[in-house]
Amino acid sequence: MTTTDNAAKARISASELADVDRAHIIHPYLSATTTERVVMAKGQGSTLWDVDGREYLDATGGLWLAQVGHGRAELAEAAATQMRQLEYFTSFWEFSNNRAIELADRLAGLAPDNLNHVYFTSGGSEGIEAALKMARHHHYRRGDTDRTWILARHRAYHGVAYGGGTATGFPLYHDGFGPMLPDVAHLTPPWPYRTDLFGDEDCTDVCIRELENTIAEIGADNIAAMIGEPIMGVAGMVVPPDDYWPRVQEVLHRHGILLILDEVVTAYGRVGQWFAADHFGVRPDIIVTAKGITSGYLPLGAVLVDDHIAETLGQQGFPMGYTYNGHPTSCAVAQANLDIIDREHLLSRATEIGTYLTEKIATELKGIPVVGEVRGVGMMLGIELVSDTATRTPLPNPGAVADAVRREHGVIVRDSAQGLVLSPALTLGHNEADRIAAALRRVLERTDASGT
Ligand code: PLP
């Protein structure tokens, strides 16, 4: 089927859509062994329906972003109203637009203290690239031209462009794509459950010692910034000890190294606060956000920048721009999305329903041999799966577990490197939380150490 006739395209029947997809769409990360396609057609709250009318419970919030849930007519109206006024104009040079200005003003009010400046993007990866370039350029403008190194962590995920993709700490994202960006060093992630990384020592102590040693080896005057997700998402919703970020910040500050927090997943309520920086009590120099800013209704990202960096960059302008910087329609939808988060008190709800869901899952999964740990902050939950709870050896192929939960129970969860991750809408109902926990129990209680 290679027709380009729109009328003909609209006539593709439900039963043919999967075939046409297989013929024409390149999917990110599609397993080479699957021919299956799940073709979604409708969403409401945390419920999705595919083109055959099968119902699913979305426990992933789209891709970790549907803060207000699917199917909000209010957001469709916001987009339509703005498109009738001004769908798009550039924000390059001296041009701006009312919606981008209003949103930047609101974000500056929500963000931690000195992060009063906003650089808009279309998504997370673009935001990470902007943040890394800002960090290097800030030092360059100040005459610190050797400060090029970026510190990141193993098991981090910072998107798929070459800068963030290099900072990402999984071989999968590097293999076959090299050479990657030079001058990037990876550190041990703060992952208390992984005792193989820390032995009997305190997790934060080990990480801080390694950070200090790495800075000494590379030379503080050669390092631009450290980047990290406050809670590591793709790794498995890895929650660091409370003292990790404050102590990292102290070391970086002492050496003049900038701290970039990648809050692409955590920002805008998912952890029960607007930003995870507030949860951990840190004041980064740059925060990268995307996803939840529009709940995914339109692509948008916002890099929040501290006064001192904006001042350096402002002296001669920041020589980097994306066509969709400050897209007025995306910004209008973001405003309407933040209005819903405010009006429906979704920050406190994330904590309330997130605690309920975590406890419910922990109770249902108690005593199941392949379940190592259930953890979470707000509506970011990770389940560590192991083939042996004593050695904490990761269970092979957690993807098979996620597939079974979807196919057998219609509940969509996602596999991580070493288990399962959940990030439902902040509006999830208690009975929906119960259904998620029950579906996980039914599949995991019959899963053996081989992962089948
Ligand atoms: N950073 C983090 C922590 C993410 O989880 C993601 C995407 O999941 C990204 C960056 C990249 O964002 P995007 O996929 O919008 O480019």
TrEMBL record:
SUPFAM superfamilies: PLP-dependent transferases (SSF53383)
Superkingdom to which the source organism belongs: Bacteria
Keywords: Aminotransferase, Pyridoxal phosphate, Transferase
Record carries keyword Transferase: yes
Its EC number(s): 2.6.1.-
InterPro entries (UniProt xref): Aminotrans_3 (IPR005814), Aminotrans_3_PPA_site (IPR049704), PyrdxlP-dep_Trfase (IPR015424), PyrdxlP-dep_Trfase_major (IPR015421), PyrdxlP-dep_Trfase_small (IPR015422)
CDD domains in the cross-refs: OAT_like
Signal peptide residues on this chain, from the entry's feature table: none
Catalytic EC class: transferase
The keyword Transferase appears for this protein: yes
One MF annotation (Gene Ontology) recorded for this entry: transaminase activity
PANTHER family: AMINOTRANSFERASE, AMINOTRANSFERASE CLASS-III
Family listed: Belongs to the class-III pyridoxal-phosphate-dependent aminotransferase family.
Protein name: Putrescine aminotransferase
Species assigned in the record: Haloactinomyces albus
